[in-house]
Amino acid sequence: MRPLKKLLNRSADIRTFGFGLIWSTLGTVAVRLTPLITTVLISHWFGIESVGKFAVTYGTLMSASMLAATGVSLMATRNIAAFAHSEPETAGRLAGMAVLLAGGTGIALALAIYLFSNEIAGRILKQPELAFYLRVISPVIVVSALNSVQTAILSGVQEFRTIARLNMIMGVLMIASVPAGLHLYGLTGGFAALGLAYLAGCMITTPAMLRALRSRGIRFSFSGSLSQWPMITRYAIPALLASLLYEPVNWICTTIIVNRPDGLEQVGLYFIAMQLETLLLFAPQIVVQVLIPMLSSGFGEKDSRRVRNMLAMGIGTNLAIAIGFVAVMMLFGDWFLLLFKLDPSRDWPIFMIVVLAAAMIACALPLGQVPVSSGHMWTGLSITGGWAMTFIIGTWLLQDQGAKGIVIARVTAWLFSFIAYIAFTAFAIGKLRNRTS
């Protein structure tokens, strides 16, 4: 009976993983296409320097949004998945606390960027003309952070189909509105349209999130939500610090490059390279989104076999995807560069490094969720800290090489992180196996 039960559980995991992957892929495609389409249009309509302006401003928006939402989002997904069945009241309070914290942090960051936009643009970025765009994107930070946390709550109750439908609606709104805004009012119109799309996304997601929680007997509640503060110190704070180290580090490294005489052009080239990485990694990142709540359940049940199976499915799926996109880019990479009006003979080495790095990152992503899912958040923070220091130091040392230097520094940082994640995963599974034996 016991082997039969394990077989049935494994089949259920495979089914959940498969359906979650399909729905999440469908929903994410449109959202991920928006920055890519926007970058193509800017490069054609306004030139590579305007791509640099967009990249720095959009990077500031994403950095602040992730800073506001990533920590509480990971906390919400992990712990709502763990408590949804056993303690639904706790899960409801955790959801309420996540929304409160993301909203409050988003408002604080938006105000800071709005009030100090001149100082950030003039003194840090050495590009005073960007101050106006920073003020334009400041309110978008709040709605972007709230939308991320709402999606994380849905992920915690494994509502992948709902997430997919909402993402498809969001993607259609973005793809329809952002190019129109760009065409009519330039970068200002593009950022304003992006903000309206995020606002509409929040308004649509809220009732869907509440329905999903109610269907599982979870009552969303702000009352008593701060009583879950230990979850903040154990999960959200290290995840928040990790997000502080991760996305803003990209911003710091682009700031190092943008101070060159041809800084905006080099940042524009790097941003296009990162759009390629985003395009290549969108499917592997979806695999990870599906994997997190399932890994959290496996670690919560202290089931080492289930954890190994889930990691094998995640890494195997991402490896197959990585082999596919490396082959495609080897064959059609020149077309991608020409799409952005770049010179393949001059710029291809940078993009080849990005392609090979994306293949490595795809395989590392499932292992990167082990510290989160196993509750060792501070270990994950330490690994991310090592990644951040390697990336910043490498960029500083290679800044004379411009976009190529920052790409090489980023690859080196990910290589060291991959090795660290492999070592920690072996430790975590071995520890889990010892507990169950």
Helix-residue proportion: over 70%
Pick out the low-confidence regions: 1-10
Mean pLDDT: 79
Radius of gyration: 21 Å
Q: Termini, distance in Å?
A: 19 Å
What is the H-and-E element order? HHHHHHHHHHHHH
Return the domain count: 1
Description:
- There is one protein chain.
- This protein is 89% helix and 0% strand.
- The chain is mainly alpha-helical and 437 residues long.
- The protein has one domain (2-436).
- The model is unreliable at 1-10 (pLDDT under 50).
- Keywords: Cell membrane, Membrane, Transmembrane, Transmembrane helix.
- It is a multi-pass membrane protein.
- It comes from Aquamicrobium defluvii.
Question: Could you provide a short overview of the structure?
Answer:
It is built from 13 helices and no strands. With 437 residues, it is an all-alpha fold. This is O-antigen/teichoic acid export membrane protein.
Question: In terms of topology, how is this protein built?
Answer:
Elements lengths: L1 H44 L2 H36 L4 H28 L1 H8 L6 H26 L3 H56 L13 H30 L4 H38 L3 H36 L4 H25 L1 H5 L2 H21 L5 H34 L1
Helix pairs in contact: 1-2, 1-6, 1-8, 1-9, 2-3, 2-5, 2-7, 2-8, 3-5, 4-5, 5-6, 7-12, 8-9, 8-10, 8-13, 9-10, 9-13, 10-13, 12-13
Key terms:
cell membrane, globular, 437 residues, transmembrane, disordered N terminus
